[in-house]
Amino acid sequence: MKTTSRYRWFVVSVFFAFMLLHQADKLLIGPLTTPIMAEFNINRAQMGFITTGALLVGAVMYPLWGYLYDRYARAKLLALASFLWGATTWLGAIAPTYPTFLVARATTGIDDSSYPGLYSLISDYFLPNVRGKIYGLLELSMPIGYLIGMILGLFLGGSIGWRGVFYITGGLGIIIAAVIFFGVREPPRGQGEPELAELEHISTYRFNWETARGLFQKRTLRILFIQGFFGVFPWNVITYWFFNYLETERGYSQDAVFMTMVLAVLVLATGYPLGGALGDYFFKRTPRGRALVAMTGVLSGAVMLTITLAVPNDNQILFAILLSLTAIFIPMAAPNVVATVYDITLPEVRSTALSVQYFIESSGAALAPGFAGLIADQTSLKSAFLLICVTTWILCGIFFALVARVVPKDVHTLRTQMRQRAEEEKAIAA
Length: 430
Prior knowledge:
single chain; mainly alpha; Growth Hormone, Chain: A; 80% helix; globular
């Protein structure tokens, strides 16, 4: 099945909208933290565990979503995930007490683990040497979604209340579900591989347990899995607590919070496509390219965050500039991790491979917001940021260096497997 360039960009635009609005809904909890805490009369630790609950549910769901995506039609399952996003968000909007809100927000984690199927489907529309750019473009939706969530939380939250905001974002999830269900076609698995891209017919490849077990024999994946346990700690801590940090520890007004975060998020948004483009550029020259870009990003982020948090509270301009410079580096690893996983795995187990990666990430990161809240209650949010973010970025830099050392062999193995499949397909056609 050949896919037109126009249609594949339509698919990218639909999934960009899905991720954009989903992230806005998911990250609304950050700017709405203060009014939610006030309504339920809870402390920072209790508020932190609201997000922890969603992360734990999402972590548990990753293996199931991965298996389903590799076994059945990914497009229809993504439509289901979007519907669940809308429905569970509405449950949170009607929750009358803290315990019921805690449970309702935890159920939103069901659809939070749906992205591996999206990335897998996209991999069948684009060749490996441009996937970093495409993943970076899609992940651009995350900071922009965060910005939309911030605007909704800060401005609509005051007029229609935090519950009203959740009603809006939940409704958008239902609409996107219909667009995906009726508008996105399922491509043959492996269609985006260069060895198979020009073939008129590609056999149907489905998940099997032997191939899935083989994932754990790849040294690159084993290192990425370990890295993943630590890798999302900083993102979850920063997105969840940074609004509260600016308000309470740096004494920013609502306008100052808004301007500082808008600038930082807009700059951060450039880090995703920049990281993906740099990863593609260096990957064309060496299989180690993506890992080296990721390593540079996390280590630079650790250095810049340390410098930024040391700025005195009254110097808002310098703080905003340094925070923005820090933000460039924070997301650079993300598109390169996804692209690397797909550079070394067979098409029929790619959702499973990325689901394992994200399962491990979520398992570690699920404790991050609550742990940061506990540290903040004893010391400060600044101490929590330094302890959690800087330490984990340094560890991740070490792991990406190890990935760079071993990844060429696993890339070569996949390319050999794809050439063998291409020969088999040609023999069948003949």
